[in-house]
Amino acid sequence: MSKTILVVDDSVSMRQMVTFTLKGAGFEVVEAGDGKEAVAKLNGGAKPNLVITDLNMPNMDGISLIKEIRGMAAHKFTPVLMLTTESADDKKKEGQSAGATGWIVKPFNPDQMLQVIKKVLPG
Asked: Does the global pTM surpass 0.90?
């Protein structure tokens, strides 16, 4: 059975690139344009094995989204990767304290991204 990844980014082109990489590796992909849309999809029954989210988005940013996900019983332990242009340590710490599992800096390298995903996805 293939694993599902929820990709959250307000940039359509970035979502397309991530989705292309993930589908090429055999993953199912659900897309959301911001944190609010992602929460709606999770509440609507989406059951991703992993969430990849941007940090800076309108309506609800990545840190707020991670806190929301960690507050949902069904998704409390779902791995969450931040995909962002931010590489500052304070932002990383903020992401980690919110519950982020890992961090991928944009522009991402598809092979590196898949390696990180393999590390955080169980089985």
From this structure: yes
